[in-house]
């Protein structure tokens, strides 16, 4: 089923799909976060050539921005008025979600600060 914006929903059917949000991919999400965290540390490493840093920043920024947009969209659907009015057995579970200080996750759920920092680094490096 193609995802549509919350305002375009005409029925509650799409919310059943939200309930299936990739629990099976939580581990993959952790792996993504670990790898991303490793790349972020590499970008901050002293002595990394500017050209190489910019290539890494450009590559990772696209995937982080896409992931952040998907998380925002998912969270908005999960918290929407329509979702709140569903019977309990049909309501989507608003997970995975974790707080910024969750030490079991390498990156926060909300990637806004990281994306902003990377964009800033990329802009600083441009002549």
From TrEMBL:
Any GO molecular function: mRNA N6-methyladenosine dioxygenase activity
From the record, what ranges are coiled-coil?
none
Q: Which GO terms describe its biological process?
A: DNA alkylation repair; regulation of multicellular organism growth; RNA repair
Q: Which domain of life is it from?
A: Eukaryota
Which residue intervals define the domain Alpha-ketoglutarate-dependent dioxygenase FTO C-terminal in the entry? 31-119
Signal sequence, start to end: none
Under the heading PANTHER family, the entry gives:
ALPHA-KETOGLUTARATE-DEPENDENT DIOXYGENASE FTO
Query: This protein is called what?
Result: FTO alpha-ketoglutarate dependent dioxygenase
Q: Which organism is it from?
A: Cercocebus atys
């Amino acid at each position: 089923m193609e995802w549509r914006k919350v305002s375009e929903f005409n029925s509650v059917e799409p919310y059943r799909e939200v309930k299936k949000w990739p629990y099976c991919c939580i581990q993959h999400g952790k792996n993504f976060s670990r790898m991303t965290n490793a790349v972020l540390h590499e970008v901050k490493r002293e002595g990394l050539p500017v050209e190489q840093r910019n290539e890494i920043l450009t590559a990772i920024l696209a995937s982080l921005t896409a992931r952040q947009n998907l998380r925002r969209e998912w969270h908005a659907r999960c918290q929407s008025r329509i979702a709140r009015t569903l019977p309990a057995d049909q309501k989507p579970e608003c997970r995975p979600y974790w707080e910024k200080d969750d030490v079991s996750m390498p990156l926060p759920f909300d990637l806004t600060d990281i994306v902003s920092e990377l964009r800033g680094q990329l802009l600083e490096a441009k002549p």
